[in-house]
Amino acid sequence: MKILVTGAAGFIGSHVSTQLLDRGDEVIGLDNLNNYYDVRLKDARLANLTTREKFRFLKMELSDRSAMAEMFRTERPKRVVHLAAQPGVRYSIQNPHAYVDSNLVGFMNVLEGCRHNEIEHLVYASSSSVYGANTTMPFSIHQTVDHPLSLYAATKKANELMAHTYSHLYQLPTTGLRFFTVYGPWGRPDMALFMFTKAILEGKPIDVFNNGQMRRDFTYVDDIVEGVIRVLDRIASPNPEWNSAAPDPGTSRSPYRIYNIGNNNPVELLHVIHCLETELGRTAVKNLLPMQPGDVPATYADVDDLVRDCNFKPNTSIEEGIKKFATWYRDYYAC
């Protein structure tokens, strides 16, 4: 079928596009190729896709209402995987307007395109950051998430609310995926593992926040992609047992679902650095620092609903995943 993938030149979007093409789908890849990080990496990811017969690329801003509406009318995709967004907890403190334009206005344009063009299923990226001030772990989709700690998290929570509204008003099937610390080959240079690798190989110190005691549910990109595609193929449906007197945040009486996709195994940052040192054959010079504003000390995903509904649970170990990432990094950068 024809599937629209937004953010197709991005880290997760390029992997998802590849997997969809591998199984025979036609992919319309949309991206604005902005300079939030090195555009050459986006171009390289895109180059791996543009040689494929069933892939076509469109350079476009999500916030361009008329262009997005025309694209939906012209392309008529059957399903949409919406991965394009302005990412980054820390950058949202520096440049909040970028998050409003991309994550709110852009998401509205995607919803409107889906509404008016009979899209079978919209699957979109949310984030583990929506759990914010929650401390009960593992984080469950059945918890309320009303206390975000960054504007980035607030926009992702807003996306879930906007999606529910469209599921309710227009019976548009939507599924939000809360990703937990995704890493792997072709990753983003602004993420910790990428920055650590670059600094260690260059003999420079690395900034380690919360004195290395951060714990993250690191999730390998191949597991994320498998989860995205399994969810895409399971069109969201109403929960017949949903009760307005005791509302379940993860489901609805509308065709609306939320899932966590995480490794279900939080790892301390110092262990991640140790694994990276082992693979690179270098010792990191650590600059231990306190917690940064907007960060949370730990993330840990409850994936029971994903396992039950999609028969899938991420399971790539941090040791295996870091080995694959380090191998890709040294090959790509010839170092």
Would you give an account of this structure?
With 335 residues, the protein is α/β, with parallel strands linked by helices. The protein is built from eleven helices and 13 strands. Strands 3-2-1-4-5-6-11 form a seven-stranded parallel β-sheet, sandwiched between helices. It starts with a strand and ends with a helix.
**Nearest-integer average pLDDT:** 95
The fraction of residues in strands falls at 15-25%
Percent range of helical residues: 40-55%
| Terminus-to-terminus distance | 40 Å
Low-pLDDT stretches are none
What does the overall shape look like?
globular
Helices and strands, in order, run as EHEHEHEHHEHEEHEEEHEEHEHH
| SSE class | alpha/beta
Number of strands: 13
Can I get a quick summary?
This protein has about 325 residues and is of the alpha/beta class.
Question: Which helices and strands, and how do they pair?
Answer:
Blueprint: E1 2-6, H1 11-22, E2 26-31, H2 39-50, E3 55-59, H3 65-75, E4 79-82, H4 91-94, H5 96-116, E5 121-127, H6 151-170, E6 174-179, E7 182-183, H7 192-202, E8 206-209, E9 215-216, E10 219-220, H8 221-232, E11 256-261, E12 267-268, H9 269-280, E13 286-289, H10 304-310, H11 318-332
Parallel strand pairs: 1-2, 1-4, 2-3, 4-5, 5-6, 6-11, 7-10, 8-13
Antiparallel strand pairs: 9-12
Helix pairs in contact: 1-2, 1-8, 3-5, 5-6, 7-9, 9-11
